[in-house]
Amino acid sequence: MGKGENKLYYTIGEVADMFQVNESLLRFWEKEFDILSPRKSDRGTRRYSREDVDNVALIYHLVKEKKLTLAGARKQLKDNREGVKRTHEVIARLIAIREELIAIRNEL
Questions:
Q1: Tens digits of residue pLDDT in 13-44
Q2: How wide is the angle at C-alpha 29 spanned by C-alphas 26 and 34, nearest 5°?
Q3: Residue 48, beta-bridge partner list
Q4: Host H or E run for residue 16
Q5: Number of structural domains, the chain?
Q6: Which residues, 6+ apart, have CB-to-CB distance to 10 below 8 Å?
Q7: 70: domain CATH number?
Q8: Spatial CB neighbours of 9, under 8 Å, sequence gap ≥ 6
Q9: Is 19 within 8 Å of 54 (Cβ atoms)?
């Protein structure tokens, strides 16, 4: 993730930028998925924890990358959340390795 990785909380705008989605989509997912529940300040400003960001990543993976319906994604998260999490982590690691190998090749 890069810059700001160690922050305690992220704004909805920062999270939307991380995944290149609209803030309205994050608010929608918040209603659709009970694993996504950012804290809200007294003024109603959402504050996403690292766990919330990780949950957005899982939802994004299922809905945007695997093209599951919302109902299908909810079922996957309910029935096999740890499996989904492991699969997503493996894919992310493989993508990072691929990018590193491409960078090494380009330096040669």
A1: 999 999 999 999 999 999 999 999 999 989 98
A2: 125
A3: 10
A4: helix 12-19
A5: 1
A6: 4, 18, 47, 48, 52, 53
A7: 1.10.1660.10
A8: 39, 47, 48, 49
A9: no
